[in-house]
Design brief:
- The protein has 238 residues and is of the alpha+beta class.
- It folds into 2 domains: 45 residues; 180 residues, Glutaredoxin, CATH 3.40.30.10.
- Helices cover 52% and strands 13% of the residues.
- It contains 9 helices and 6 strands.
- It has a 6-stranded mixed β-sheet with strand order 1-6-5-3-4-2.
- Helix 4 runs antiparallel to helix 5 and helix 4 packs across helix 7.
- The termini are far apart.
- The relative contact order is 0.16.
């Protein structure tokens, strides 16, 4: 009788031990495949597919509108649009032009690069320089004037010297002087400044990068590195 009781107790201990082992194993391995699939399906519904491609690059669904007077470099029909807000007295803005040149080389025919002026209030000559580049754009020499202004930002951006730079790039000086002296692009620059403030730009340079025609993209509020720009572009091209 004692032997029978012993075997019953021993058998119960074994059964309980097996149950405990099974439960412990499930807690480590996780739920079954069916349960896992259910969880994955659920989470995929809520997953944000528009992910940030690089640290500190911000997602945005607020894209500044383009204007007829906005200078465009690259392919006007490019798949990716980059809007740059910049200031001609800003050294970081000057440095960023080299990075943007690399981007245009890396993505031939895919990039529409749009320039918008954001002359900061404490820069004495930036606003007039901004008007000059728009006057030059009307003669299809935006890039040439942009280069002159950045190359001379530490030398002189006085209006009289800007006129010399205009001569150097072969502008029709009668047309340029009428535009520049008459302040014909003053209002356009003011609209750029208003757009910058409306869309959260508080430093230069700043970049909006988005798929052309889309209302979603990325915002980089500083002198973006080549890798940061490429990461945003590659994410949009996927």
């Amino acid at each position: 009788m004692q032997n029978k009781s012993f075997y019953l107790i021993f058998s119960a201990i074994i059964v309980i031990s097996l149950v405990v082992i099974v439960l412990f194993a499930q807690s480590i391995i996780g739920p079954s495949d069916g349960a896992n699939n259910a969880i994955k399906t659920d989470s995929s519904k809520n997953k944000d597919i528009f992910v940030t491609p690089a640290p500190n690059v911000e997602k945005t669904d607020r894209i500044p509108p383009l204007e007829r007077k906005d200078p465009i470099v690259g392919n006007p029909e490019g798949e990716i649009t980059i809007i740059e807000f910049a200031d001609f007295e800003c050294q970081y803005c000057a440095d960023s032009q080299k990075t943007l040149e690399e981007i245009l080389k890396n993505y031939p025919d895919k990039i529409r690069l749009v320039w918008k002026n954001y002359p900061l209030s404490f820069h004495s000559y930036s606003k007039k320089a901004a008007e000059a580049v728009l006057c030059s754009n009307e003669q299809k020499k935006f890039s040439q004037m942009q280069n002159q202004l950045f190359d001379h930002q530490n030398i002189s951006l006085l209006p009289k010297d800007i006129k010399e730079y205009a001569k150097d790039i072969g502008l029709d000086m009668d047309k340029f002087n009428t535009c520049f002296d008459g302040g014909l692009n003053e209002e356009a620059v003011s609209r750029d400044i208003a757009a910058a403030r409306q869309f959260g730009v508080d430093s230069v340079p700043s970049f909006f990068i988005f798929k052309t025609g889309s209302d979603q993209g990325y915002f980089i509020p500083w002198a973006a590195t080549l890798n940061e720009l490429k990461s945003a572009i590659d994410a949009l091209l996927k």
